[in-house]
C-alpha cells in the first residue's frame, strides 16, 4: 500500500475527485494549506499600494491506495491537472506498513 499526498490548485479539486473515482479510490482527506515553491507567490495592488503575497493557497489531498493503482493515478493526475504553468502542484508517494479499519478490525488492503 502507498499513501499519495497530492498538492493541487483549489480549482482542480473536482477534477481530482473524478480521477480518484475512475481509479476506484473511495476515500480521501482534503486540507487547505498555504505555501510556495518555484512560484514564489505573487504581487497584488490594493488601493494604490503593492503587496507581495508570498504564500499561495493550495489543497492537500491524501489517500491510501493499493500498490498497483499508484502509477495509474499519477499518470492521470499529471495528464489532466497540468496547465503547463508553475504552481500546478506535486504528488508525493509514501510506503504504508499497515491499515486497520476500526469498525470491523479488517487489516491491510481490505481496510481500504
Written account of the structure:
This protein is an alpha+beta fold. Helices cover 19% and strands 37% of the residues. The protein contains two helices and six strands; from the N terminus they run E-H-E-E-E-E-H-E. Helix 1 (13-22) packs antiparallel against helix 2. It is elongated and about 60 Å long. The mean pLDDT is 91.
Specify the biggest β-sheet: 4 strands, antiparallel
Task: Write down the Rg.
Answer: 17 Å
Separation of termini? 9 Å
Q: Give the overall average pLDDT.
A: 91
Q: Would you tell me the structural class of the helices and strands? A: alpha+beta
Number of strands: 6
Instruction: Please tell me what the overall shape is.
Output: elongated
Placed side by side, the strands forming the largest sheet appear as 2-5-1-6
The helix content is 10-25%
Poorly predicted parts: none
* Order of helix and strand elements from N to C terminus: EHEEEEHE
Tally of individual helices: 2
Strand content: 35-45%
Amino acid at each position: 500500500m502507498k499513501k499519495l499526498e497530492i498538492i493541487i490548485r483549489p480549482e482542480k479539486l473536482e477534477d481530482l475527485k473524478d480521477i480518484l473515482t475512475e481509479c476506484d479510490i473511495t476515500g480521501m482527506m482534503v486540507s487547505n494549506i498555504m505555501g510556495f515553491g518555484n512560484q514564489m507567490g505573487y504581487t497584488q495592488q490594493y488601493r494604490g499600494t503593492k503587496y507581495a503575497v508570498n504564500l499561495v493557497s493550495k489543497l492537500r489531498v491524501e489517500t491510501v491506495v493499493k500498490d498497483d493503482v499508484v502509477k495509474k493515478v499519477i499518470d492521470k493526475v499529471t495528464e489532466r491537472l497540468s496547465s503547463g504553468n508553475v504552481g500546478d502542484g506535486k504528488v508525493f508517494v509514501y510506503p504504508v506498513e499497515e491499515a486497520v479499519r476500526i469498525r470491523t478490525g479488517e487489516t491491510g488492503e481490505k481496510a481500504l
